[in-house]
């Protein structure tokens, strides 16, 4: 389910190559980003839009509007298109990892164990979201960063802590991390669900990695 909402920094963009630059950015291929700016974003990029990192190197990366979690730098032919950046924009531009993790298809499984690992300085909250499909006629993944509607069907999922068997109601602040190292395991009831993801809120510091094991009886 990957890390999310943990990296943010400024970047510059070059129109001729579509390359974005920030020294030692720490991003990897497939990371979801949203962009903000103190001026005008480089032409070709937009606010309130999720982009995905491709062609990541130590100091540079490109952006795609198409998710490709298995992307490898140097792929030829390139499996997803890069955003065509046609000018450098104005003002300072900032990327921030999207607050919603990758959606995974859990329809072939009945059980899910989630591991949540936060570094010692982590301060933020994690919740789990599930869906049986975007709508009655579309079983694709909903937009988990948007509100639930009849055409964007989703809900929070209850979790049970494996350390003590305590149930925690599904919410945006389901698992709270407040400046201390967090290494916990949770069981989610995914029986009958199609999609699963995580969402982070209130993040101010630290890094979080969430991964899951899917299995049947």
Radius of gyration: 18 Å
Give the number of helices: 0
What is the helix/strand order?
EEEEEEEEEEEEEEEEE
Q: What form results from the Cα inertia axes?
A: globular
What percent of residues are in strands?
Answer: 35-45%
Tell me the strand order in the biggest sheet.
Answer: 1-17-9-15-12-13
- Oligomer designation: single chain
Biggest beta sheet summary:
6 strands, antiparallel
Provide a descriptive summary of the structure in words.
- This protein has strands spanning about 1-5, 10-15, 20, 30-35, 50-55, 60-65, 95, 105, 110-120, 125-130, 155, 160, 165-170, 175-180, 180-190, 195-205, 210-215.
- It is globular and about 55 Å long.
- The chain folds into 2 domains: about 1-100, Beta Barrel (Elongation Factor Tu (Ef-tu), domain 3), CATH 2.40.30; about 105-215, no CATH class.
- It has a 6-stranded antiparallel beta sheet, with no helix packed on it. A 6-stranded antiparallel β-barrel has the order 2-3-6-5-4-7. Strands 8, 10, 11, 14 and 16 form a 5-stranded antiparallel beta sheet that branches.
- It is mainly beta and about 220 residues long.
- The two termini are about 20 Å apart.
- It has no helices and 17 strands.
- Helices cover about 0% and strands about 40% of the residues.
């Amino acid at each position: 389910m990957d890390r999310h909402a943990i990296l943010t920094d400024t970047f510059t963009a070059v129109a001729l190559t579509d390359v974005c630059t920030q020294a030692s950015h720490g991003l990897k291929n497939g990371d979801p980003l949203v962009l903000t700016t103190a001026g005008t974003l480089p032409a070709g990029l937009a606010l309130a839009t999720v982009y995905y990192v491709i062609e990541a190197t130590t100091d540079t990366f490109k952006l795609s509007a198409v998710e490709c979690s298995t992307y490898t730098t140097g792929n030829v032919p390139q499996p997803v298109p890069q955003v065509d950046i046609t000018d450098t924009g104005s003002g300072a531009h900032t990327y921030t990892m999207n607050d919603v993790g990758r959606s995974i298809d859990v329809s072939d499984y009945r059980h899910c164990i989630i591991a949540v690992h936060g570094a010692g300085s982590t301060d933020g909250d994690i919740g789990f979201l599930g869906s049986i499909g975007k709508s009655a006629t579309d079983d694709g993944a909903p937009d988990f960063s948007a509100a639930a509607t009849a055409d964007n069907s989703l809900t929070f999922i209850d979790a049970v802590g494996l350390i003590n068997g305590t149930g925690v109601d599904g919410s945006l602040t389901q698992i709270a991390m407040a400046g201390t190292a967090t290494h916990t395991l949770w069981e989610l009831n995914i029986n009958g669900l199609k999609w699963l993801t995580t969402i982070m809120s209130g993040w101010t510091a630290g890094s979080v990695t969430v991964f899951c094991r899917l299995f049947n009886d």
